[in-house]
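Let's sit down with a protein and look at its sequence and fold side by side. Go ahead whenever you are ready, and we will take it from there.
>
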Amino acid sequence: MNHVKIPQDRVGALIGAGGETLREIESRAEVRLDVDSENGAVQVETVGDPVTGLKGPEIVRAIGRGFAPEDAMELLEDDVMLFDLIDIDAAARNKKDLQRKKGRLIGEGGRTRQIMEELSGANVVIYGSTMGVIGRPEQVSMVREAAEMLLEGAPHGAAYSFLERKHNEQKRDDLSYHRFSGGESA
């Protein structure tokens, strides 16, 4: 059994209207959730496939860190899907610096966060003092590296260039992987 603590204001998102989201998580992740709505404590017990059940606490954690339940459920789509958390507070000197660093990651009108999602293919959420990422390992790595660049003070253009370069490398790798190799060469 795993114990996960989520912010009280995210308990409603975890449970859903009439308990619908909670039941869907229990069914798809093959777990049983016991939610204490008073303090945000969630007990996650595996009741089916143990490998699938390992994703249960990650789904609860992701919802607790601001992801929509349907985005958190993407962790079940593939064995390699990851949930990663970047602690923005650890990079900040004080509350004012935390707000500034969060602003750098979000960007004007959410543009920086959106570019991270578009170029990496991962889902990105900034909630409280953390940045959550859901995606395949290479996608999560791209976002983490770009976020660390921004947190260390790199210009946004440098982070965007890094993401574009990695995005193009991914596309090239995908093309070479899917290229038909049967045929005659000239």
Q: What stands out?
A: The longest strand covers residues 31-36. Residues 82 and 98 are 25 Å apart (CA to CA).
